[in-house]
Specification:
With 51 residues, this protein is α+β, with helices and mostly antiparallel strands. The chain has three helices and two strands. β1 and β2 form a beta hairpin.
């Protein structure tokens, strides 16, 4: 969890979203027929709150 927090802080300093950031933190993106989007992250949301 500490590593994840450090990586997020490093990326936040950059000021832009790069493909590397997306690949590192997002497992998959699903777009349903109705246009709804589900983003599956490679970490649990609670990991960010407790790190």
């Amino acid at each position: 969890m500490v590593r994840l927090k450090k990586e997020l802080k490093q990326f936040m300093k950059l000021g832009e979203l790069t493909p590397e950031m997306v690949y590192r933190f997002i497992d998959k993106v699903e777009v349903k027929a109705d246009g709804a989007v589900n983003i599956h992250y490679k970490f649990a949301a609670t990991a960010l709150l407790t790190a």
